[in-house]
Amino acid sequence: MQMLKYLTLPLLAVSLVMTGCASRKPAAEISTGVTGGNPGTTVSTDGLSEDAALNAQNLAGASAKGVTEANKAFLAKRVVHFGFDSSELSNEDYQTLQAHAQFLLANFNSKLALTGHTDERGTREYNMALGERRAKAVQSFLISNGVSPNQLEAVSYGKEMPVNPGHNEAAWKENRRVELNYEAVPPLLK
Fold first, then answer.
1. Max intra-chain CA distance, the chain
2. CB 99 within 8 A of CB 107
3. What is the pLDDT of residue 81?
4. Which residues is 117 bridged to in the sheet?
5. Closest CA to 187 of 56, 43, 58, 34
6. What does the protein in this record do (predicted)?
């Protein structure tokens, strides 16, 4: 019986780690409705899930600090794509990530979730690890550009959340990505 206890704990720990990476819920995409006569200060969150309500409040508290005309287009881009079986950042993504790093440096209360995704090919375990490597590659770039690790969260969904359900190279190319999801104080791009 004692031997069984020692075997069960490591197995339980491994299973928690493997499932913990995908346990985080993605931020819901919502459009916020402003209530009352003072736009931008009160957001109606009636009927929204907890995640959606938090998103609505964060959108209402968006920041223009760190947003310039030069980096608006880069801040609007919230997806970084990767090559097949790769976690290497492309040259095209450096300016986008640099703009997000500058915004995060100017807005210490901003929080960014980096969600790594893969295409459908490969095992679930392999794709969870590849999605994590992709998210960590973006996280490392941002940290090397001065962003506090406390502002970042790297999560892998592997192949579980494709944006394109197709089974061809065009779909796979879209699904190999890291999404940059602001969870607190996103850039105000208006």
1. 67
2. no
3. 97
4. 158, 177
5. 58
6. Part of the Tol-Pal system, which plays a role in outer membrane invagination during cell division and is important for maintaining outer membrane integrity.
